């Protein structure tokens, strides 16, 4: 029987690599964290960590079966890692969660740019306070990230509601997401069911990371952990 993904386990997942990563995935449901573990798993497979290739192949198959935005992109990256074939996408040590925040945050505060040398995500609201280089070669170090707004995140709430077996909760959540303040009301209502709230955080994270991955691939890059390739 697999263990539930707690906040503690998810925190450990973010920093795990090699044997520690495989140990975590061996005791928890891989299907809940496909996007969250995929890059570290690909790095472990490319480095020949025992068992990583088989787990990466399972992850790729599960991604293709689920087929959410970004899943096919990651599955292809895992295939490449397992086969040791050179990827056409350039590696970039960017944090997909931070990139998602630039892409899908509040339009008044999101957007920004990525340092192509370090992978650092720099929000526009902070970036505007810093001096800009007038050197063209220096400017080429940055990849501009526009703000796409919160529509996709709103649709995530709609799609999550459809997955619920509790029809009363589903009905209340459907009402909660109508009109201004939808996100706050949705989370307040979902907080009455801690199990479903945790399911939603996993669901939302997978969707957001997948969309960020697609955006990055469209610009010719793939995320890798620091020190990855």
Structural write-up:
The chain is mainly α. It folds into three domains: 7-87, no CATH class; 92-148, no CATH class; 151-211, no CATH class. The protein contains twelve helices and five strands. The protein has helices at residues 7-15, 18-27, 34-46, 52-66, 71-83, 96-104, 124-127, 136-139, 151-162, 167-176, 182-190, 194-218, and strands at 90-92, 112-115, 121-123, 142-145, 221-223. The strands form two sheets. A three-stranded antiparallel beta sheet has the order 3-2-4. Strands 1-5 form a two-stranded parallel sheet. It is globular, with a radius of gyration of 19 Å. The two termini are 34 Å apart.
Strand content: 5-15%
Helix content: 55-70%
The whole-angstrom Rg is 19 Å
N-end to C-end Cα span:
34 Å
Query: Structurally, how many domains make up the residues?
Result: 3
Structural class: mainly alpha
Largest sheet: 3 strands, antiparallel
For the residues shown, what is the average pLDDT?
91
Shape, please? Answer: globular
Low-confidence segments, ≥5 residues, pLDDT <50?
none
Number of strand elements: 5
Q: Could you provide a short overview of the structure?
A:
The protein is mostly helical.
Layout of secondary structure:
Elements: H1 7-15, H2 18-27, H3 34-46, H4 52-66, H5 71-83, E1 90-92, H6 96-104, E2 112-115, E3 121-123, H7 124-127, H8 136-139, E4 142-145, H9 151-162, H10 167-176, H11 182-190, H12 194-218, E5 221-223
Parallel strand pairs: 1-5
Antiparallel strand pairs: 2-3, 2-4
Helix pairs in contact: 3-4, 3-5, 4-5, 6-12, 9-12, 10-11
């Amino acid at each position: 029987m697999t263990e539930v993904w707690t906040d503690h386990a998810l925190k450990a997942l973010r920093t795990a690599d090699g044997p520690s990563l495989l140990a975590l995935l061996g005791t928890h449901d891989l299907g809940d964290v496909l996007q969250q573990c995929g890059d570290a798993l690909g790095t472990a497979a490319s480095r020949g960590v025992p068992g990583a290739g088989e787990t990466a192949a399972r992850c790729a198959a599960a991604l293709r079966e689920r087929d959410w935005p970004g899943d096919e992109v990651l599955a292809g990256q895992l295939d490449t890692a397992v086969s040791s074939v050179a990827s056409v996408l350039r590696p970039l040590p960017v944090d997909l969660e931070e990139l998602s925040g630039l892409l899908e945050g509040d339009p008044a505060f999101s957007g920004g740019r990525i340092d192509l040398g370090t992978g650092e995500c720099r929000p526009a609201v902070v970036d505007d306070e810093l001096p800009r280089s007038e050197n063209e070669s220096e400017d080429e170090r940055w990849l501009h990230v526009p703000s796409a707004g919160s529509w996709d995140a709103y649709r995530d709430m709609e799609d999550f509601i459809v997955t619920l077996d509790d029809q009363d909760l589903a009905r209340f959540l459907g009402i909660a997401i109508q009109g201004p303040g939808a996100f706050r009301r949705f989370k307040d209502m979902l907080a009455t069911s801690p199990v479903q709230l945790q399911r939603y955080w996993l669901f939302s994270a997978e969707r957001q990371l997948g969309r960020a991955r697609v955006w990055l691939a469209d610009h010719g890059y793939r995320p890798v952990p620091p020190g990855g390739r």
